[in-house]
Design a protein that fits this description.
20 helices; 10 strands; Cytochrome p450; single chain; 468 residues
């Protein structure tokens, strides 16, 4: 009898799917629709309920699709460390293909995508970032000059405009920056609007937003194609991503076509601009609502820039108080409230098995407010990231606003540098105050910014600024 029990135990351990515990299901699902109505009303509230009811793993259904939410540090570790042939991003992010184009990013095999993005990593090294810091300072200073002495600003619109100017000049080239006001910005806005909840499920559905998206993609391809043709004719070789890609070769020796270059540039532009604009808006709201935090950041600005009077990469790196504010806004207001992968092979975690075909998800908006990870998680407190607390250092996946694992946002360092440059200049130049209460998040957009109206009043500070 003992031998038969041992044999049974061995067989059980060799068949984890049969022995796995059932993944608990979120309560309150509807027939056919599942949890879709609740998700559409407030996705973060619904996903938070998954954690409260069931902890690290919980399953739910949105229409016909089965999802499993991974929440908590160890669950994140399992999620982000899973190989591409087990958790696949490409199958989920097909809605980006009409935006970035065929033959790039999520329209190619993971190894080709890695090779394409690998062309750009040398262009994100220290020398490039030093040049970017100077450009950021120039663009933000011009923006601040145009504001005048006092007024009010629609924050998301202003931050989108400013970050498009910065990112287009840094990443795509001066020629693109010169055309921002003559067609590029309008086309890029229509392209951004193509990222929506309906497009996630039906990216080719011929709705007005998708028709505008497709026209915008053709317009941007024409603008960039004309610039590349002129560079080839003239022999111009400026230091930017476009030139890097025009000179690049795949491992098999093949050069990149213009549409591939356009698609990779758009991928990088979205990485360096879209989430930055949203986080810049949340930072403005936080600074208007938290005068104590602003005082500390301004003391740091004075200490860093008092003598030099000019901004560079080294000075931006010294601004740790401001960087902690960036991280706290990332924690409280992650631009991407959920990250999704398709399970290609069953995934085991903590005695559960997530079956193939399921959509696996993590939610930065939920995980960043776990009370056992972040003390008093609803409170805005940048000092939680300073020693000795250093709450983001307790685990490499504690703060996941820019993703994690192989698909961590390659534009993270550029984005943080840009946010620091923007708010260094603006806080040195102006006082800000809210017209209304801090707006709620707008969950109708894939990248979650504040809901309209979102306006700040500003007035030039009486003190002389540190920049000369």
């Amino acid at each position: 009898m003992a031998r038969r029990s041992d044999t049974a135990a061995t067989l059980s351990s060799a068949e984890p799917v049969a022995a796995a515990k059932p993944i608990p299901e979120l309560s309150g699902g509807w027939p056919l629709l599942g949890h879709l109505p609740e998700f559409q009303r407030d996705p973060v509230a619904m996903l938070s309920r998954c954690w409260r009811e069931h902890g690290e793993l919980a399953r739910f259904r949105l229409g016909p699709r089965e999802f499993v939410l991974f929440t908590g540090l160890e669950a994140h570790d399992c999620y982000f460390r899973a190989p591409e042939d087990q958790l696949d991003a490409r199958a989920v992010y097909q809605f980006t293909v009409p935006i970035f184009g065929r033959g790039v990013a999520y329209d190619v095999a993971p190894e080709i995508m890695a090779e394409q993005l690998g062309f750009l990593y040398p262009a994100l090294r220290e020398a490039a970032m030093r040049r970017f810091a100077r450009i950021m300072f120039e663009e933000v200073s011009q923006f601040a000059d145009a504001l005048g002495d006092a007024g009010e600003v629609d924050l998301p619109t202003a931050m989108n405009e400013l970050t498009v100017n910065i990112a287009s000049r840094c990443l795509l080239g001066q020629e693109v920056r010169d055309q921002v006001d003559s067609g590029f910005a309008a086309a890029y806005h229509d392209l951004q609007e193509g990222i929506n909840a309906l497009g996630f499920f039906l990216p080719r559905l011929p709705i007005p937003a998708h028709r505008r998206r497709d026209r915008a993609r053709r317009r941007i391809a024409a603008i960039l194609g004309a610039i590349m043709a002129e560079r080839r004719r003239s022999g111009a070789a400026p230091e930017d991503f476009m030139h890097t890609l025009m000179q690049a070769r795949y491992k098999d020796g093949r050069v990149l076509g213009d549409d591939e270059i356009t698609g990779i540039l758009l991928t990088v532009l979205f990485a360096g601009q879209h989430t930055s604009a949203v986080l810049a808006s949340w930072m403005g709201l936080a600074f208007a609502a938290e005068p104590g935090c602003v005082a500390g950041v301004r003391e740091e600005i004075e200490a860093v820039y008092r003598e030099s009077g000019t901004m560079d990469l080294a000075s931006l790196k010294r601004q740790q108080a401001l960087e902690r504010s960036v991280r706290e806004c990332e924690r409280l207001h992650p631009p991407l409230i959920l990250l999704v992968r398709k399970v290609l092979k069953p995934l085991d975690y903590a005695g559960y098995t997530v079956p193939a075909g399921t959509l696996a998800m993590v939610s930065p908006a939920v995980s960043h407010r776990l009370p056992h990870v972040f003390a008093d998680p609803q409170r805005f407190d940048p000092e939680r990231f300073a020693p000795p607390a250093s709450e983001d250092k307790q685990h490499h996946y504690a703060l996941i606003g820019f993703g994690g694992g192989k698909h961590r946002c390659m534009g993270k360092n550029f984005a943080i540098l840009q946010l620091k440059a923007i708010w260094t200049v603006l806080l040195d130049r102006f006082d800000f105050e809210l017209e209304t209460a801090v707006p709620a998040p707008n969950y109708g957009s894939w990248v979650t910014g504040p809901r309209a109206p979102c306006r700040l009043r500003y007035r030039r500070r009486s003190q002389t600024g540190v920049f000369r």
